[in-house]
Amino acid sequence: MELIGAVLVVVDMQTGFLNDNSKSIIPAVVALIDKCARRGIPSVFTKFINQPESPYEILMGWQRVRDSPETDLHTAFFSRAEIVLEKHFYTAFTSEFDDLVRKNDWRSILISGVSTESCVLKTAVDAFERGLRPVVIGEACASDIGPDVHRMGLEILEVLIGKDQITSADRLFLPTDPDN
C-alpha cells in the first residue's frame, strides 16, 4: 500500500477506555508506533476528556472519562507520545489536528486505538470526507465493549470508507521491507 504524507493517529489509549476487552491491543499499538517511527511516520495521540454538560452526559447519561486517572494515557505510551491532542468529541479532527494536517501536508491517516465503533470510526470517516486516505489498522484497534462490537465497527468502516482501507500492520508494512 502506497502511503503519501502519512501520520499515525493513536486514538484514546487512555486508562478509562482500556479494560479486559481492549487492553490486549497495547502491544500491537506499541509495535505499530515503533514501525512508523522507523519509517519517519510521526504519531499523534488523542486524549478524550468528557466535559460536564456534554452531549454524552445530557443525552446518554455517561459521566466517565472526565479526570485523571481515566483521562491519562496508558503508561506504555508515555515515552512515545510527543504530540497529544485533547478532544471532547469522537473525532480526532479538532481544529488543532486540522491545522497539523494542513501544515504537514499529511494525506494518509493511519488509525489505531479505541474504540473501533466510535472514535476510530468517526476519525476514519472524517478523514475520508476531507479527501484524505484513512487506513485503519484492524489488529491495533479494539472496542472497550467487546470483540463483537469491534468486528461490527470494522464491518461498518468497510462500507463507509472502503474495504481496502482496513488492513493489518503486516500488510501495510510488507515482510520484504527490511525495516519491518
Largest sheet: 6 strands, parallel
- In DSSP terms (H or I, runs of 4 or more residues), the helix count works out at 6
Q: What is the CA-atom radius of gyration, in angstroms?
A: 15 Å
Structural class determined from secondary elements: alpha/beta
Strand order of the largest sheet: 3-2-1-4-5-6
Helix fraction bin: 25-40%
The unreliable regions are none
Secondary structure: number of strands: 6
Which geometry do the CA atoms define?
globular
Query: Residue-averaged pLDDT, rounded?
Result: 95
SSE series: EHEHEHEHEHEH
**Beta strand %:** 15-25%
Distance between the termini: 14 Å
How is this structure best described in words?
The structure is a single chain. The chain has 6 helices and 6 strands, in the order E-H-E-H-E-H-E-H-E-H-E-H. It is of the alpha/beta class and 180 residues long. Strand 1, helix 1 and strand 2 form a beta-alpha-beta unit. It is globular. The mean pLDDT is 95.
Outline of the structure:
The chain is an alpha/beta fold and 180 residues long. The protein has helices spanning 26-38, 55-60, 95-104, 116-129, 147-161, 169-172; strands spanning 6-11, 43-48, 83-87, 108-114, 133-142, 166-167.
Task: List strands and helices in order, with pairings.
Elements: E1 6-11, H1 26-38, E2 43-48, H2 55-60, E3 83-87, H3 95-104, E4 108-114, H4 116-129, E5 133-142, H5 147-161, E6 166-167, H6 169-172
Parallel strand pairs: 1-2, 1-4, 2-3, 4-5, 5-6
Keywords, please?
6 strands; globular; six-stranded parallel sheet; 180 residues; alpha/beta
